[in-house]
Write a structure and sequence with these properties.
This protein is mostly beta strands and about 450 residues long. The chain has four helices and 31 strands. The radius of gyration is 21 Å and the shape is globular. The relative contact order is 0.17.
Length: about 450
């Protein structure tokens, strides 16, 4: 009986992978300040195109962009997804994956989607730890690796304010006492504020960034569904960025209508908070572009009632024309279904001049588009605090010619020496990107 069920499910997965629409636009048409938005194309079975996990062959690496070089900073990690660089140059890595969420993905479609996500490298249990990496000799390779904190429920974002290390777990914002130079923390954390989680917890990752003065913390909370299909009562406090008082835990919704915000960064010229957002699925391979945007206090960005401003999503009932009317248009599209997660300002980078003013974006890679999109790291140049040009390749070729994923980039961060670090959760590697000339000089 078990064998029969397995065959049925395998056949269902094969059917699901074989169906769905093919993109009619080049990916570039869904990138930039004014992306092209095709009419929605719904189908009973969504478009699915998942790159199966292969892992990196020995000595292999992604292809760096012009003038750049890449090397392994650390490998052999367990699903590293997010990065944070401490003032002394130590690098913190969230080794993490989805928590148990038994109410998410029920039914045949949900079960098959779980199989496909496992195929994509997201099926293993979470390590539930923050690992510290140290490169004391400055050779670009971490020679020290310790567990800084353990037994954290699917940790993701991190932020240091003074001697307080804040960690955004899937269900709470935590505060640890950190002593400069420490390689482990044994004292239990303080629980600053509970975050939406529970047995559904569809978008489980939570990120955190501190205000310039450290008095406020901004926390991302993704939606509990694709487009409200689990009931809008399940979305309370979700699809939003919270503002949290670091001292008291008092909080409010800072911005809403953001389906799944992940990366956050301060833009140095304007001082504005920026975020990267994963938009909705199952409207065809060309809709909807993921994006990055400056975040306005009190701003509403459409989800679930509309996308990219006032483009109404007819699937959502009842409609809310009052909210659609005030939905803000995002600043910059990052391509349909690219799963743009990582976001880092180039401030402090020592890469070549073309990579000094703008944002680095880790595009984790699509599952709901044919052909695949993302699976790369790009740089979006800025001028006067706003995007000012097409994305430039930073790391590419995470997928083989026959469609197997060597890796998938997620978090990005500038290290203490100005290089770019990239967390690769399928390759289990932290990549370090430098200028090609700087790497040649270090080798000579």
């Amino acid at each position: 009986m078990k064998t029969s069920n397995a065959l049925v499910l395998t056949a269902a997965a094969a059917v699901l992978c074989a169906c769905g629409s093919v993109a009619e636009l080049p990916l570039s048409a869904t990138v930039g300040p004014s992306p092209q938005l095709e009419p929605p194309r719904q189908s009973l079975i969504p478009t699915v195109e998942v790159a199966s996990v292969a892992g990196w062959p020995p000595d292999a690496h992604p292809t760096p962009g012009p003038g750049l070089a890449v090397a392994r900073f650390a490998d052999g990690l367990q699903h590293p997804r997010w990065l944070y660089v401490l003032p002394n140059g130590d690098v913190l890595v969230a080794e993490t994956n989805a928590p148990p969420k038994p109410e998410d993905g029920k039914g045949i479609k949900g079960f098959v989607m779980k199989l496909l996500m496992k195929k994509a490298g997201a099926g293993q249990p979470s390590a539930d730890r923050i690992t510290l990496l140290r490169d004391a000799d400055g050779d670009g390779i971490a020679e020290t690796r310790t567990v800084l904190v353990r037994d954290v429920a699917s940790p993701f974002g991190m932020a240091l304010v003074g001697n307080d290390l804040y960690v955004a777990a899937t269900d709470a914002l935590l505060r640890y006492r950190y002593e400069p130079g420490a390689t482990s923390i044994s004292a239990p954390p303080a629980r600053i504020v509970d975050l939406p989680a529970g047995p559904l917890n569809h978008h489980w990752t939570k990120n955190v960034i501190a205000s310039r003065d450290g008095s406020k913390l901004y926390v991302t909370v993704g939606s509990n569904s694709n487009v409200g299909e689990n009931g809008l009562d399940k979305e309370e406090g979700r699809a939003a960025i919270w503002e949290v008082d670091a001292r008291t835990g008092a909080h409010r919704i800072f911005a809403s209508g953001l389906r799944n915000p992940n990366g956050m960064a301060w833009e140095p010229r304007s001082g504005a908070l920026w975020t990267s957002v994963n938009e909705r699925d199952e409207l065809g391979s060309d809709l909807v572009p993921d994006y990055m945007t400056s975040v306005a206090d009190g701003g509403f960005y459409g989800w679930p009632y509309s996308y990219y401003g006032q483009h109404v999503d007819a699937r959502v009932k009842p409609p809310r024309p009052d909210l659609v009317a005030r939905a803000r248009v995002p600043d910059y599209a990052l391509g349909a279904h690219t799963a743009s997660l990582g976001l880092a300002s180039a401030q402090g980078a020592t890469l070549p001049d073309g990579y000094r003013d703008g944002m680095f974006v880790g595009r984790h890679g699509s599952w709901n588009r044919k052909p695949r999109s993302g699976y790369d790291v790009v740089f979006v140049p800025f001028a006067d605090g706003k995007p000012a040009g097409s994305p430039m390749p930073v790391l590419t070729d995470f997928v083989s010619a026959d469609g197997a994923a060597y890796g998938r980039p997620v978090g990005v961060a500038i290290d203490g020496r100005g290089a770019l670090l990239v967390a690769d959760d399928v390759g289990n590697v932290i990549w370090r990107v430098t200028g090609a000339r700087a790497q040649r000089s270090a080798l000579n």
